[in-house]
Amino acid sequence: MKTGMRREMLDRDLTGTKKLLGEVLWPVFGSFDAMELEYELISITGVKVYADVFHRMMRTVFEADGYVSHAENITRDRFSFEKTRIRTFATYGYKYVPFSWDQLDKSPEACKRSVFELLGRFGNANGSSWFELPVYEREIIRCAMVHPGPFRLNDACGWLQLGQEATRKVVRNLVTRRLLKMEGGSEKRSHLFRLTDNARDLL
After folding, report:
1. Considering the entire predicted model, what is its pTM?
2. Which is nearest to 96 in space by CA: 122, 126, 131?
3. Residue 113 CA to chain centroid, in angstroms?
4. pLDDT (tens digit, 9 = 90+) per residue, 106-115?
């Protein structure tokens, strides 16, 4: 149960946040498991600030801003506070990805492409290593990043829209590369798979 100021934030009009979730984040991720609404942080001035949507795995803040409330009618004090909020996200090491309501209404496909690009590039410390992987292997890693816990072969089949034999080959390659590890089952047949630290380092 959420209490206090965060409860109040969750109870307010979340029209923009719902638009962001429905038009962009759900189509891209297919899950809200790694996301938290009205994520609370303590700013560099000691004041609580809130992010519309925080993606825990990507360490990214997604926000939807209406023109009237965030530009046309904003006061000088509110404008300064918004800059403090953004600096706070940077201090925590979070990426900040804002969208306007107009963009979500008029160009949802462009908004989704922006998130897909971020998803493919975020935190890639190893340069081109990520892009050297075959696309199916990258897709399994990407989906596993937002999937809660270990996953089954059937999960991977759904992600790739491939049959079991074709998917098993892709998964086996990832295990050989030490980007996936097997859990349960036997040496020849595993029941579950989980990303290794090597895979996370690619992202």
Report:
1. 0.56
2. 122
3. 13
4. 999 999 988 8
